[in-house]
Every structure is written in structure tokens, then in C-alpha cells.
Design a protein that fits this description.
Number of helices: 11
Largest sheet: 8 strands, mixed
Number of strands: 8
Structural class: alpha/beta
Order of helices and strands: EEEEHEHEHHHHHHEHEHH
Strand order of the largest sheet: 1-2-4-3-5-6-7-8
Length: about 290
């Protein structure tokens, strides 16, 4: 598979009202409609989407965020979903972004859903989104069920467990659990280099940021999916067996008016193989 990744057009940090820095990267014209991206597990602003240079490519200013403790964003021990929502509100106010559309990929999806539930964004695309697996732990494989139960019973112990991960361990886990259609994307020289750079960047301040992310995503989500009032599209590759037991069908049913797109021939790499339709649909929803 041929896809092209490019380096960010702009890299920066924004000083939040509480003195922390929130790091970001941007692709696209500064005057184009902004779209925030909450990236996947243990990745950062160093990894964007596929390049938007086709004849039907939408004009978009893609802004990828480093969640606290990952990449160049200041750690925030004990942070919550509500804290991330406030960070997004503050960033948008300070940078004049208004109420932008947002996308959440993989483990970044619950954080984006929290922003949608709070009304902080105008539309949302959930792409290969991590499901709320703690809602139905009995249906999970034994090893994953044990981690969910540990997260519920002793979040601090769970956080210590997840803090043992390294960039190499994350790479090996993704490579071992992905279908061949995804591996064709992940192993491509340009993508592999960018992905590995983002993994190393995510752990630059240590594993605590990733560990906190995972405890939050793997626990019960303290926001009301049924109260989301902005347009939501969910995108899953039909070969994705890692992010949601049913490719987001139950998750979509919990969000009023959500539309689910099941893409054949790909798994969790759908963000990069279908960048243009995902972002085009998201911008149409935000305008609508």
C-alpha cells in the first residue's frame, strides 16, 4: 500500500492557565478549518495522518495534541478526563480555535469522546476507537479481563503495571496483534520510521503518561455517551479485532445519532488508509 506521511508544518507548545505546557503539531494552511486529533496509545504529535494532497482532499488545519505526560506536554499526575477537556477548552481559547471539530484515534478516542460529551467540540470522528471494555468485562478474554478488573479494584497497581511498557514493547505488541492489511501500512519504510519516532517521543518523559492514559481508557468512562449532542461518526476497519469487540456497533448505539462506517479490507490502520473521507465527513458534520 502506498501512502505518504509528511513532517509537521508547525510544532509548538501553549502555556495553559495553570502553568503547564500543552504541545501540538500542525499540518495544513493556518487559515483552514481546524481539526484537533487525540492520537493513539503511546503516540504523539510526531505522527499525523496521511498527506492530504489528492484532487478531492479537504482543506484542513490538522492539530495533533500531546496528552499530559506524553511527548512535550507537561505531566499532570492523577489527571482525569475532565482535566483533559479543560485543557482542550483552554488551548482553543488561547489559540483562537473557536469550537473545532475533533478526531480520536485508538486509545485517544475516549478522550475525544469526553470532549464531545462536554460540548467542547463541534463534531467528532472516532477512528478505530478503544471501546469501553470495562462496561462488559465478563465478555473479554481472560488476560484482558484481569487487567480491567485490576484497574477497577486498584487503579494505582494497574498504573504500575502499565508503566512497565516501553516503546519497543508497544511496537512488538502492535505488530503481533495486527492483520496483514495493517502490517502492510505499519511496515512501510516511511510509516515505520514516523511511528517509531512517535513511540519514542511518547516515552521521552518516562512511561507515566502512557500508564495514566491506559488506566483512564480501560476503566469506566465518567461521562454520558447518551448526552452527546454533537454529530459523531465512528470508523472501524472490518479486520480490526483489537479496539472493539464488535467494531463499534454497541458504542455507536449508545451515542444519539451516531453513524458507523465499517471499512472493508483494513483493520486498525484505517486512519491512514482513509484519511480523506474521514476528515471530509468530519468537516461536513461540523458545518452542518
Amino acid at each position: 500500500m502506498t501512502l505518504r506521511l509528511t513532517a509537521p508544518d508547525r510544532l509548538g507548545t501553549t502555556r495553559l492557565p495553570d502553568g503547564r505546557d500543552l504541545a501540538w503539531s500542525e499540518w495544513g494552511p493556518p487559515g483552514a478549518p481546524p481539526v484537533l486529533l487525540s492520537p493513539g496509545a503511546a503516540t504523539t504529535r510526531r505522527l499525523g495522518t496521511a498527506a492530504l494532497d489528492g484532487p478531492a482532499a479537504p482543506a484542513v488545519r490538522l492539530i495533533v495534541l500531546d496528552r499530559p505526560g506524553l511527548g512535550a506536554s507537561t505531566p499532570a499526575p492523577g489527571r482525569t478526563f475532565a482535566g483533559f477537556v479543560q485543557d482542550v477548552r483552554d488551548l482553543c481559547a488561547l489559540r483562537g480555535l473557536g469550537r473545532p471539530a475533533m478526531a480520536g484515534n485508538s486509545q485517544g478516542a475516549p478522550f475525544a469522546l469526553a470532549c464531545a460529551a462536554a460540548g467542547a467540540v463541534s463534531a467528532l470522528a472516532v477512528v478505530s476507537g478503544s471501546d469501553e471494555i470495562a462496561a462488559e468485562p465478563a465478555a473479554l478474554p481472560a488476560g484482558l479481563r484481569e487487567l480491567v478488573e485490576l484497574t477497577a479494584a486498584d487503579p494505582a497497581a494497574a498504573e504500575e503495571t502499565f508503566a512497565r511498557f516501553t516503546p519497543r514493547a508497544m511496537w512488538d505488541m502492535v505488530m503481533a496483534s495486527s492483520p496483514e492489511s495493517d502490517l502492510a501500512v505499519y511496515r512501510a519504510p516511511g510509516f515505520a520510521a514516523a511511528y517509531r519516532e512517535a513511540l519514542e517521543d511518547a516515552f521521552a518523559q518516562g512511561p507515566a503518561g502512557y500508564a495514566r492514559d491506559t488506566v483512564l481508557a480501560m476503566g469506566r468512562w465518567p461521562f454520558d455517551l447518551g448526552g452527546i449532542a454533537v454529530p459523531v461518526d465512528l470508523w472501524y476497519g472490518a479486520q480490526d479485532t483489537a479496539h472493539s469487540p464488535d467494531n463499534g456497533a454497541a458504542l455507536a448505539a449508545r451515542i444519539p445519532g451516531a453513524e458507523r462506517h465499517l471499512v472493508p479490507g483494513i483493520g486498525g490502520a484505517v486512519l491512514w488508509t482513509h484519511t480523506e473521507p474521514i476528515l471530509r465527513t468530519l468537516l461536513e458534520r461540523a458545518r452542518g
